[in-house]
Design goal:
This protein is 9% helix and 30% strand. The chain has one helix at 2-21; strands spanning 32-33, 39-45, 66-73, 78-81, 89-90, 116-121, 138-142, 150-151, 157-164, 170-177, 190-197, 206-209. The strands form three sheets. It has a four-stranded antiparallel β-sheet with strand order 1-2-3-4, with no helix packed on it. The chain has a four-stranded antiparallel β-sheet with strand order 5-6-7-8, with no helix packed on it. Strands 9-10-11-12 form a four-stranded antiparallel β-sheet, with no helix packed on it.
Length: 212
Amino acid sequence: MKKYFSFLVVAVYTCLSSSAQKKDEINYSDPFQIDSSEYFLIPRLIDSENHEAFGKGKGFLPWGNYRDIYFYNTKTNETRKLFGQTLALINGFGPRRYYYEEKPTETPINILTNHIVYLVRTDNFNGDNGLDSEDPVYLYISSKTGEEVTQITPKGLHVLSWTTAKDKKIILVKLQLDKNGNKKFGNGDDEVYYRIDLNDDISKIKCYPITL
């Protein structure tokens, strides 16, 4: 009986020690090369290492979303974060893939001629102390080197979809307005369209409503 008890104590201690020493995983999505340049995008996924930073809100953290995106320069061997210290919940450029699946061959629609577009949550709109699926998605844009990242859709309007013109000079965005003021986006809220006129100079990009 004593031998059995001693064995049980050792087993429990071993399990607790292993649990205490276990390190949470850090997960990344597959990289995307920007055109044929020296730059690659390496998205970091939401994982057990960083999910607590988003708080405990009313919603959830969408599967396959990014915590941030690293721009890796193969010539200088340097990396830089897109959002850095800004808490951001970034929609994935495509479905999350595993090693046994065929890797994507097409360039993501997010990579335009002179810019990269991102769908991002950065605003705890409902004030529940959590950044998650209950908060609005905004359209952000940056240069192809990850600089001048800028929000280009209005605060408080939730992006439902976006369509780029074939000449890559205009984006039409369908958004949702919190018409009833309940800090949610869904039934009872109006849909509106905005037009975004792109420009090589990000500071000159214009976003304005379309009258329908």
